[in-house]
């Protein structure tokens, strides 16, 4: 607390009482009074009860960093409603911000449900669901959803901003528009920033995280900024339940320790999950230094693959063209014939012949050795000759029963039309979390279970070792072509083909996704 600030218990009590008149909206808590957990009450009392000598609030920025499932959305919604309906501000403008409209809508929907469950508020508040706006009629104040796409709309007169999952902001533009000068006309604007830790250290969230740490550790002074960080320290043992408790102040209330224990056990078995566990459950800024695929586990799946044995068998293709001067990858995945069989992977790669030696010198990758071994093919000229690849795939189609070919819809238009002309069924495959996450997780699961056979193909092995994954707030993953500085095209093609093989199998009956649902790790 600043030297000249005062703690006004009445103001703090008022804010706490307003929130505790609201109701929870989800799960087993739904409909029950919103009783603030100790850590939440401390934040509300400090923010709304710490006043300057002139009687206005001292803090105008609150940075709350906390693991997932701690009651973040409920607290953010309650603060948004308090600023809109309970702060005595005429024509207050309160905005809910997130990376995209869907994420920004999460807190809005909670707030709208809180209004519907409150007889006092529902009489005075109008909910405009289509435009994601809540209007408090007595003061003509509103709470409005905004997303990063809408950052160009200047001219705000802000009384409050609730920023949800600040770490997912694609850049600093929306943050700057909402926080720099936009609340100057108000006496006590509040920027309420709430987030889990991220992995991108060149971001507005990490910058704000660093400021919060500097203030907490007395390296900087800013009496208007209120920092709260719940998380494990860098050297803490991430498998220790005491560390979980320290990082998760709502443990045993909003999330059971059994859930965290199960997630930890899973992360111990699968090194690729360790980062996600530490980021989402322990709120650590995990720099993506751990490659995704544990190569010792991948190498255990180097079971011999005999192409002759596969003749006539059902399989699915994945095609990743990247650019015409780069590696093109085509991968076939054969679904297992029975319980004891494995998913068999047959990869093919092409590079332009004329750029091969220059590329070896530049990338320090043994493309020339792989070409001599027959593991990589070259096409004439200095760009990949797609006609050559189409002919090759056509010949593969005569040997194997290629049911479908999945492709990244970017840049493959002409080749796709040509393949369709040859009679192949070609299906576009999105590169976002929705499409990529299930088969990416499935590939890891099958690898750990040794249910994959890839014959130790060196080019595919190199690409698997290059993969870094990106994780979204819901725990979905996908290969990250930006972070994976080396080539991963073959891995992406494998994941796409694996998805089709799992969904369609050897016949058109139900897929494993239908039988047991998508895998959530």
Automatic annotation (TrEMBL):
One of its GO terms (molecular function) is endonuclease activity. InterPro entries: P-loop_NTPase, TerL_ATPase, TerL_nuclease, Terminase_largesu-like. Residues 38-213 form the Terminase large subunit-like ATPase domain. Residues 222-501 form the Terminase large subunit-like endonuclease domain. Pfam families: TerL_ATPase, TerL_nuclease. This is Phage terminase.
């Amino acid at each position: 607390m600043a030297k000249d600030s005062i703690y006004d218990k009445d103001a703090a009590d008022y804010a706490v009482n307003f929130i505790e008149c609201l109701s929870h909206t989800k799960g087993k808590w739904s409909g029950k009074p919103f009783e603030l957990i100790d850590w939440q009450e401390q934040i509300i009392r400090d923010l709304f009860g710490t006043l300057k000598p002139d009687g206005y609030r001292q803090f105008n920025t609150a940075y709350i960093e906390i693991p997932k499932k701690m009651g973040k959305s409920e607290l953010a919604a309650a603060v948004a409603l308090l600023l809109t309906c309970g702060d005595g501000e005429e024509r207050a403008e309160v905005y809910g911000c997130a990376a995209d409209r869907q994420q920004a809508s999460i807190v809005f929907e909670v707030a709208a449900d809180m209004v519907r469950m409150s007889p006092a508020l529902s009489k005075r508040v109008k909910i405009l669901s289509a435009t994601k706006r809540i209007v408090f009629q007595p003061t003509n104040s509103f709470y409005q959803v905004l997303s990063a796409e809408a950052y160009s709309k200047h001219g705000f007169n802000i009384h409050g901003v609730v920023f949800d999952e600040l770490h997912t902001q694609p850049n600093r533009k929306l943050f700057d528009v909402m926080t720099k000068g936009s609340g100057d006309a108000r006496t006590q604007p509040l920027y309420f920033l709430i987030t889990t830790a991220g992995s991108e250290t060149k971001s507005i969230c990490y910058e704000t995280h660093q400021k919060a740490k500097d203030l907490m550790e007395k390296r900087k002074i800013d009496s208007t900024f209120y920092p709260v960080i719940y998380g494990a320290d860098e050297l803490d043992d991430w498998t220790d339940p005491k560390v979980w408790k320290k990082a998760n102040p709502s443990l045993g209330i909003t999330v059971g320790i059994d859930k965290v224990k199960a997630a930890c056990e899973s992360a111990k078995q699968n090194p690729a999950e360790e980062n996600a566990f530490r980021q989402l459950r322990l709120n650590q800024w995990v720099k993506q230094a751990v490659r995704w695929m544990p190569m010792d586990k991948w190498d255990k799946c180097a079971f011999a693959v005999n192409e002759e044995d596969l003749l006539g068998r059902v399989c699915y293709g994945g095609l990743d063209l990247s650019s015409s001067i780069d590696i093109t990858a085509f991968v076939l995945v054969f679904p297992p014939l029975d319980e004891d069989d494995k998913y068999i992977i047959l990869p093919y790669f092409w590079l332009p012949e004329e750029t091969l030696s220059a590329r070896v010198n530049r990338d320090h990758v043994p493309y020339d050795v792989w070409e001599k071994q027959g593991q990589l093919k070259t096409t004439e000229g200095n760009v990949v000759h797609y006609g050559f690849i189409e002919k090759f795939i056509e010949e593969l189609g005569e040997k194997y029963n290629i049911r479908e070919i999945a492709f990244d819809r970017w840049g493959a238009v002409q080749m796709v039309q040509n393949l369709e002309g040859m009679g192949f069924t070609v299906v576009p495959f999105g590169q976002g979390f929705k499409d990529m996450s299930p088969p990416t997780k499935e590939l890891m699961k099958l690898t750990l279970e040794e249910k994959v056979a890839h014959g130790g193909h060196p080019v595919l092995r190199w690409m698997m070792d290059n993969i870094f994954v990106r994780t979204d707030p819901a725990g979905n993953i996908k290969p990250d072509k930006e972070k994976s500085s080396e080539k991963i095209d073959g891995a992406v093609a494998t994941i796409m083909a694996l998805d089709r093989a799992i969904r369609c199998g050897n016949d058109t009956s139900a897929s494993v996704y239908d039988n047991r649902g998508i895998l959530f790790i």
